[in-house]
Amino acid sequence: MKKILLPVVIALLVIAGSAIWIWRATGITDAAVFLPADTVALVSLPDVPRTLMRWPKTTLAQIGAEPEMQAFLEKPFQYFSKDRGGDEASGILLNLKPGRIFAAALSVSGPDAALLIGFQYWGGKLAHDAAVARLRQEIAGNDALLEPTREDYLGTEITSTTQMGVTISNASHGKWGFLSNDLAALKATLDRANGRTQENALVDSPPYLSVMTHLAADPDLIVYVQPKNVLDSLLAVGKSLGAEAIPQQMDQARKVEAVGATIKLDGADLHDTLFVLRPDPPDVGSLTHKATRFAAENSIAYFDFVANIEQISNLATNPILATLAQLPGLQNSRLPALLPQAFGPECAVTVSWDDKPDGLMAVEIRDAAKAEESLQEVLSLFPETEVREINGARAYSFPSLQSAFANPTFTLTDEFLLIGLNDKTLAAARQAAQTGTSLESAPVFAAALPSYHSANEVFGYVNTRNLFEHGYPILRPVLIFSAQVMPGISNVIDSSKLPNTATIAEHLTPMVYSQTRLPEGYLVDSRGPISMTQALIIGALASGPFQNLVPGAGE
Predict the structure, then answer these.
(1) How crowded is the C-beta side of 322, counted as CA atoms within 13 Å?
(2) Which of 32, 97, 134, 163 has the most beta carbons within 10 angstroms of its beta carbon?
(3) What is the mean pLDDT of residues 120-130?
(4) Res 53: pLDDT
(5) What mean pLDDT comes out for the span 115-129?
(6) For residue 150, what are the β-bridge partners?
(7) Is 511 exposed, middle or buried (0-12, 13-18, 19+ CB in 10 A)?
(8) What pLDDT is attached to residue 228?
(9) pLDDT tens digits, residue range 166-198?
């Protein structure tokens, strides 16, 4: 027994000693330890080496490793790195060996902000000093780089330079380097790094702790914002520019105590989690998920959400509906009053694509009698309405709204108003509901079921492979043509090397999005090859760089 026990004890002592040594060598690992509790915003890469190890497993990395994709990306990489310091930056980072990086806005007063950048490095003090010196040179631009001033702060040297009216101070403690445009903020950071100040830190702040408990563990990116700490300053700046705040919206904004988000490279997926700390959020209704039965198994996209129909149909707050209400025949319509009584709160949108894109909207019926009144009101506005039978139900279409692309048609079921682009759309929806062959039973949807069941306000699903297989063959010749007629684009991409559809499609998995209302706020979760949040941001920003590449674009 003693012979067995002794090696075990020794092994435990070795493990414990190693853990203590690693902890002492690593030091502080959470950026929030360095920051005050009232920090306005924090962006952090909490473990750069871990992120680099996770990246090759992601779908994006697997697509990028395909020979066709590498050949296509060769020219863009050359364009964005040529004469732009890409090689130099890589060399600096390689020597610096950063472990963790963060940037924070400590305070905001009007147009001014106290900023702090911190980075944990393992490349030695020389690599740290070289990186800081190169950063100062970049800030100086074409101006002569001024001789820095040095100050001893309780045994730590602080170096400061002033360029273009901005003073940048830097110092290092242990394996951490810090830069700030506010000397007092930098000294406060050093006090926390040395343990001289431990109270009133962000890491112990109740809002921060509450937000972080809802976010992903071991993430690759952390974003934390306390909007209430900067709201008044933003309002003051907006007012100076002539903008007027809407009181109701400001009241709602002030109730948001903090917002946090994480991105995690979770196997093949990019996994986003966002939490809005807003105690006792308004209850606008909860998803029943009953509309899913109208979405066919091969649907490309499906979105299920609760909507405040009364607020949407309020002419006083909805300028679009207010304009429509002035059209002939609508001025005395009862529809704005009937709609919130008849329908809601659950709505769903389904997108399918066989020979061409198709769409269906389902709106929950709240009151069947009011829904029938709404129907009669619509029929009075469109006397030419065509009525016919679809799978045993009456369907209504409007010749005046018909076009070469769509023939809007709707029908009422026991629980939902269904609106389709044509009668074929409605027939497919009713067939899916009657036969039980809906999206919910599709094998490709299985991975989305946990998010589907947990979401109580918004659920979204996109079959990215199906969408790409239909959309990319249409987009590909457009890109080739654009590269030929727009020289700016041809400088960036070689359209002859665009990868084939199957090369990318075989790696794609669905994007899933869920929003859940909790007693303490809103939890948003999204995952996929890229998340839906990332897709929206990329879509919004995509046109900007290309406008700059094309002569005359954006003018």
Answers:
(1) 7
(2) 32
(3) 86
(4) 96
(5) 89
(6) 159
(7) buried
(8) 83
(9) 889 999 998 999 999 999 999 999 999 999 988
pLDDT, mean of residues 207-221: 96
Residue with tokens 């001014």: 112
* pLDDT mean over 271-298: 93
What 3-state DSSP class applies to 361? strand
Instruction: Tell me, rounded to whole angstroms, the distance of Cα 446 from its chain centroid.
Output: 23
249 neighbors 308 (Cβ within 8 angstroms): no
Closest CA to 269 of 513, 509, 533, 524: 509
Residue 548 has φ and ψ, to the nearest 5°, of -75, -20
Contact 38, 107 (CB under 8 A): yes
The CATH code for residues 26-60+86-204 is: 3.40.1000
Q: Is 232 helix (H, G, I), strand (E, B) or coil?
A: helix
Gap between the Cα atoms of 449 and 461, Å rounded: 10
pLDDT tens for 42-93 read 999 999 999 999 999 999 999 999 999 999 998 888 877 765 555 667 777 7
Q: Which two tokens stand for residue 163?
A: 């360029």
Give the CA radius of gyration of the chain. Answer: 29
388, 404, 392, 298: which is closest to 351 by C-alpha? 298
End-to-end CA distance of the chain, in Å?
A: 84
- In the block, which residue shows the tokens 């994006």? 60
3 state DSSP class of 288: coil
> What are the structural domain ranges in the chain?
26-60+86-204, 285-456
Q: What is the pLDDT of residue 244?
A: 62
Of 503, 156, 457, 49, whose CA–CA distance to 285 is shortest? Answer: 457
Structure-model confidence comparison of residues 324 and 369, the more confident one: 369
The structure tokens listed for 136 are 């100062």
**How far apart (Å, rounded) are the C-alpha atoms in residues 300 and 505?**
14
333: tokens are: 């319509």
pLDDT digits (tens, 9 = 90+) for 472-483: 999 888 888 877
Tens-place pLDDT, residues 365-386:
999 999 999 888 888 888 888 8
Strands (E), 319-423: 343-353, 357-365, 386-390, 393-397, 409-412, 416-420
The label of the residue with tokens 């690992």 reads: 29
Q: How far apart are CA 39 and CA 228, in angstroms?
A: 11
Nearest Cα neighbor of 161 from 120, 129, 133, 124 is: 133
Instruction: Assess contact for 368 and 481: CB atoms under 8 A.
Output: no
Whether the bond between 247 and the residue before it is cis, its omega within 30 degrees of 0, is: no
Question: Do 259 and 213 contact (CB within 8 A), yes or no?
Answer: no
DSSP letter (8 states) at residue 146 = P
Q: What angle do CA 130, 96, 120 make, to 5 degrees?
A: 110
- Residues 331 and 333: their CA atoms lie apart, in Å, by 6
Please determine, for residue 290, whether its predicted confidence score (pLDDT) is greater than 60. yes
pLDDT score of 191: 95
Q: What is the pTM of this model?
A: 0.85
Please name the residues in contact with 296: beta carbons below 8 A apart, sequence gap of 6 or more. 350, 352, 428, 429, 432, 437, 438, 439
Asked whether 171 and 187 are in contact (CB, 8 A), the reply is no
**How far lies 491's CA from each of 70, 75, 483, in Å?**
17, 8, 9
